[in-house]
Amino acid sequence: MSRPPTRPRRRVPRTTIGWREWVSFPELGVDAIKAKVDTGARTSALHAHRLRVVETDAGPVARFEIHPIQKRRTPSIPAELPITDWRNIRSSNGLHQRRPVVVTELVAGDERWEVELTLTSRDEMGFRLLLGRTAIGGRFLVDVSRSYLLGRPDAVQPSS
């Protein structure tokens, strides 16, 4: 018995991004934050300063501050999001940590979609945001030799 001929797969053109990109979180009031694109990490992580978990009638909520600029504590943007899950994460230094998971809209270039983020202190890391493969999978191709291919979200685009 022979197999039926297979159709060639239709390739959907994907935008190429670099190993680091500018993104924004409009729901959180973050116009621009540098993200390290890490295909080796499954889960994305956002730096959450002064993270507190508060029980509300609607369920647990994460209250924290976002410092979108690397190596600076200003500006400090207050944020509050419902906790949708908890994850046990093994960080790059091998330590295990239980982190709250939140969902919010992310904008990268012309794309916007909801992403899951774990909240943790990233003070010692070079980037305040790590974008893992679950957040970018199926949307982008990553060119690890390039950076900032999508431009800065708050940059004024020249007219054509």
List keywords for this structure.
160 residues; 12 strands; 1 helix; mainly beta
Low-pLDDT stretches: 156-160
Average pLDDT score = 87
Morphology call: globular
Q: Largest sheet at a glance? A: 7 strands, mixed
Number of strands: 12
Strand content: over 45%
**In which range does the helix fraction lie?**
under 10%
List the helices and strands and how they pair.
Blueprint: E1 15-18, E2 20-25, E3 30-38, E4 44-47, E5 49-56, E6 59-66, E7 77-82, E8 85-90, E9 96-108, E10 111-120, E11 129-132, H1 133-136, E12 140-143
Parallel strand pairs: 1-12, 3-11, 4-10
Antiparallel strand pairs: 2-3, 4-11, 5-6, 6-7, 8-9, 9-10
Explain what you see.
- This protein has 160 residues and is mainly beta.
- It is 2% helix and 51% strand.
- The chain has one helix and twelve strands.
- The protein has one helix spanning 133-136; strands at residues 15-18, 20-25, 30-38, 44-47, 49-56, 59-66, 77-82, 85-90, 96-108, 111-120, 129-132, 140-143.
- The strands form three sheets. The protein has a seven-stranded mixed β-sheet with strand order 2-3-11-4-10-9-8. The chain has a three-stranded antiparallel β-sheet with strand order 5-6-7, with no helix packed on it.
- The longest helix is centred in the last third of the chain and has 4 residues, at 133-136.
- It is globular and about 60 Å long.
- The termini are far apart.
- 26% of the residues are buried.
